[in-house]
Amino acid sequence: MKVVIQRVSKAKLTCGEFLSKINKGLVVYFGAQEGDSEDKISKVAKKVVNMRIFEDENGKMNKSVLDVGGEILCVSQFTLLADCSGGNRPSFILAMNPELANCYYEKFLTDLSAYGLSIKKGVFGGDMTIEQVNIGPCTIIYEL
Length: 144
Known about the structure:
- The chain is α/β, with parallel strands linked by helices.
- Helices cover about 20% and strands about 40% of the residues.
- It has helices at about 40-50, 100-115, and strands spanning about 1-15, 15-20, 25-30, 55, 60-65, 70-75, 120, 130-144.
- Strands 1, 2, 3, 6, 7 and 8 form a 6-stranded mixed beta sheet that branches. The protein has a two-stranded antiparallel ribbon with strand order 4-5.
- It starts with a strand and ends with a strand.
């Protein structure tokens, strides 16, 4: 399971028409890998909401999205599991099958919501456009 976490001042997602937007918070790209166990989902959600990547009053990354009252825009993205070792065209054989990956994505959203944050989501398998304003930038890749 792999997530890419980006600290943003705002983000907006469209899929044909406007769908979701957040203010200060995180954009989280979520990828489930073939063989991932369901118990990883809650561990990854806990890591995301508690990761201290927002600045405190001294300018040190010492606050979590929970601490700053931020929001999360979560987008399922199987391309995080791309294998580019064999040539110029990425292989996605490591990505979980779509039906199960969608179940994992929905559970991840539920687990994030349990922390009391405003959670917005993308469209699983949709062709989305995402506009985001990164702060820093600060991008964290977390794999479990």
